[in-house]
Amino acid sequence: MTLAQKIQLSITRHIFLAFFTILTPLFSIWMYKVIINGKELVHGNLTTAYNHISSLVTEQTDLLDALASDPILINKNIPFNYKEGLLIPYQNSFDLEVLAITDCKGNIYSKTEGQNRNIYHRDYFQQALKTNQLTMSELLYSNVSKSHVYILCKPLKSNIGMIISSISLDEVSTILNTMLDDSIYNVLINYDGDIISHAYDQNKVHLNIFKKNSFTFDQIDTRKIALGQRVGGYSIDENSALTYSLYTPLKNTPWVLVSKINYNKYLMDEAAVFFISLFIGLFVSGIFAYKLRTNIFSITKPVDNFIEDSRLFLPQSSDDNLINHLNDIMNISRDGMYCSRTHVLNRKYFLLHGNFLMQEHKTRYALLFIDLDNLKQINDNLGHKYGDDVISCFAHQIRTMFDHPDDLIGRYGGDEFIVLTSNFKTTAQLTDKVSQLINQVSGSISNGQHKIDFSTSIGIALNTKANETIITMINHADKAVYQSKREGKACYRFYQDPDILVC
């Protein structure tokens, strides 16, 4: 795999990793907003259905309240047969299936219901007699309309009978089916939790909503419902769908209105927009990655070619790891720049770096040409191993003395070293450092049979002209070092400065 391919793969991986790292919290935020929005929709849906059903019920309860106070209807001296005729205009005007008057024995007086019907045994009639309040029946079957109805029963103020009317289950079901979203539906239950009417599945009528096979996160407090409060909670239904249910009692009825949202279905609708946005994001990321990879290939192609060519002289094992391969190349490059024995720059790279420094930094430089005295005698009499050891120690002392980051040290020849430094403020500072080096390098070496003294001679050249080159300074320092050797060695000499000489 080439460098370009590795970089392309890494960039692609990181782009998509960053994309999904950003996507995770965004998805969580989106999910949270969807759940909150769904909950708000349930509240809105419940309010709408509640208002419609309340309007339907209130319309009739207001009518019954008015009729229960009507002077003619509450008059004990007017026959019920006459009173029933007074109700017909109201029945037609409000389009009621049942609107009738009864006596205290439960006998119905109605042109629609007939004269022989008696409801005294009905629970809602008995409750109205007992409480003297408006009551509503359970779901009943009407033989007149052949449909299910609820009966409202209101005692007359004179306590001589009741006014009754009916609410059609079909009307209630129509209201329940009026939903803001197809994932939200309404259910009508009684206070025991039995389903009275369902928005879309009448087969669930008579089932208990609290005893269905579901897992409830929030326990519904029916006592709060009885007190007229809205109560809501999350649950997992029998179809493994997350739902949120909101309960509220309907005034003047034994009903509780329930509005529910099926989040599984709601999420499917909302997810379409999310996944379209996700696809667009992935598509844009893909295009960006492709463009970036193409540009990287053009940039890294020369590097790939260089690495491929380097395989000719690098070990085969370095192919296994690109980093190791590049390290091998760097080591080879370093070996080409530095002297492996002394760890200083070779002549070629010293000249390159020296010229660069002098061109970039127009400051005062000193070029030191340092020659190791008596190396030839050491090599001839003791052997080259001893000579190499002396050179290594010699180079170490130079590196220690000139250790400033801007100091440049190189090996010019076998026993010749050069130093380019600007780390001095006065000539005296420079000569102090040179003198220390001469003292530290002076010594002797022995193989047990022969002992040979060694020292160092140093020539110093200063850049006196603005355009002076590194080669010129080396030549000047070279002349100065030869002068120091002629004058006794173990000393330094400035170029063209016969007054400063320490031996």
From TrEMBL:
Positions of the GGDEF domain: 363-497
Highest taxon, organism lineage: Bacteria
Keywords: Membrane, Transmembrane, Transmembrane helix
Subcellular location as annotated: Cell inner membrane
Span of the signal peptide: none
Transmembrane segments: 12-32, 271-290
The protein, known as: GGDEF domain-containing protein
UniProt-listed CDD domains: GGDEF (cd01949)
UniProt-listed SMART domains: GGDEF
UniProt xrefs under InterPro entries: DGC-Regulatory_Protein (IPR052163), GGDEF_dom (IPR000160), Nucleotide_cyclase (IPR029787), Rev_trsase/Diguanyl_cyclase (IPR043128), Sensor-like_sf (IPR029151)
GO CC term, one of those recorded: plasma membrane
